[in-house]
Amino acid sequence: MHEFDSIIGYDAIKQELMQISDALKNADAYTQLGVQPPRGLMLYGEPGVGKSMMAAALIEAGGRKAFTCRKDKPDGEFVGQITATFEAAKAAAPSIVFLDDMDKFANGDKKHPDAEEYVTVQSCIDGCKGADVFVLATVNNIDNLPDSLCRAGRFDRIIEVRNPSGEDAEKIIAHYIAGKKFVGDIDARTVARLMDGHSCAELETLINEAGLYAGYERSPEITMDHFMKAILHTVFDVPNEEITAFGRGGNERQDFVQVAYHEAGHAVVSEVLEPGSVTMVSAFAQDGENRGFTRCWTDNRVRAMDRMEHRIIRALGGAAASEQVFGCFDPGCARDLDQAFNVVWRLVTDNCTCGFHLHNNGRDSEDLRARQEQAAAAEVERYYRKAKEILTQNRDLLEGIAQGLMRKGILTAEDIAAIRKDCGKAA
Ligand SMILES: Nc1ncnc2c1ncn2[C@@H]1O[C@H](COP(=O)(O)OP(=O)(O)OP(=O)(O)O)[C@@H](O)[C@H]1O
Ligand SMILES: [Mg+2]
Prior knowledge:
By secondary structure, the protein is α/β, with parallel strands linked by helices. It has helices spanning 11-25, 27-31, 51-62, 75-91, 116-127, 147-150, 166-178, 188-194, 200-216, 224-234, 240-244, 254-273, 304-326, 334-349, 366-393, 395-408, 413-422, and strands at residues 40-44, 65-69, 95-99, 133-139, 157-160, 278-282, 293-296, 410-412.
C-alpha cells in the first residue's frame, strides 16, 4: 500500500505531496541540477479536511526522521519547546519539523504578527538555512499568521485544503460506507450532495451516526433511512423526537400541512428550473423553528446568471405555493423574501439588469437608492409571478410532493424522482 492511499480523493494535492516526498527522499537528484528542493510546506484549511492526515502521509513517504511540535504547554514553556524541536531536527538532518496547528501557537483567535511564538518559529526556520531540515505546518486560519512567516523561502509551498465536494465527497463516503459490514440501499452521490460543504471528518462521523441509528433499531443493515436520520440530527439540528417519528407519517396538523405545501413549492420550482436538483425536502422543523427546509444542488454547468435567477424564483416558490393553495400570504416566508431581495439587489445594483442608470459606481445618493429600491421591488414581483406560473403548470407535482411530505415528513432525491415519474415528468 502506498503512503498516500489512505487519503481519499484530493488527487491534485496528493500529486504535489508525492513530488515533495520525492524531493525529500532523493534530494541529490535535485541538487545535482542546481535546484534547491522545497524547504517548507504549509497546508491550511477548515478543521477536519485532512491536513494532519496528509502531513502524516508525507512524513511517512519522505522517509526522514520527523520532530513534531504541537501546542500543549503554557506560553512560556512552549517557546522553549519550539526551539528545542528545531535544534533536535537540525542535529538529525536530513529531517522534518512538523508544526501541527501552527496558528494555535499564539493565544487567541486574532492576528498576532508579533507573538513570541511566531517570531521564534521564524528565527528557527532561518537558523536552519544550510541544514537539510524540511518544515511542514498545518494551519486553520492562515490570516492569523504574520505575512513574513508565510513568504517563500520559509514556506515555499502553501496549499489550501478545502472541504470535499462532488466526486471527492462521493469517494470519501463510498470509502467509509465500504468499511461498514451491512449496508443497504445507500447512494453515495445522494449523501454527498446532501453533505456538500462539510468536512471529511464530518462525513466520516455521519456514516457512523447512521450506523448508530441502525444499531439502536436492531436493524440488520444500515439503510438510507438511517442516513437521513443522521443527517437530520447532525446537520440540520432536528430534535430527536421529530426524527423518531420519521417514516410513520400521517401528520395532519394544519401547520404541518402548510409547511408541506410551502416546501413543496420550493421543490417544484427547483425541479422545473433544474431537473434533479432537489436533494432533500423536509417538513420537519430545523433549529427548533416552525418551518421545514429544502436543499438543492446546482450543477456548475448552469450559467451563473441563470443560477442567480433560479435562486430567486426558488426562494419565492414557498410563498407562491401558500398563496395558490391556501389563498393567503405565508407568515413563514420572511427569510425566503430576504434571500430573494438580497440576490435581486445584487443583480440590480451590481449587474445592472434593469439598466446602467441604477449602478452604484461609488455614488451614494438618496435619489439613486430610492430608484434602486423601486426597481428591485418590481423585479421581485416579476420573479414571484414566474414562481406562480411554474406552480400552476405543475400543480400535480406540487400535490405529489406535498402529499409525500405529509406522509413521510421528509423526501430524498429518489422520492422526488419517483413522484416526478408518477406525474409523467421524469427528469
Ligand atoms: N481525504 C480523506 N480521506 C479519508 N478520510 C479523511 C480524509 N480527510 C480526513 N479524513 C478523516 O477525517 C479525520 C480528520 O482529519 P484531520 O485530523 O487530518 O483533519 P485536520 O484538517 O487536520 O483538522 P484540524 O484542523 O481540526 O486539525 C481523519 O482522521 C480521517 O479519518
Ligand atoms: Mg489537524
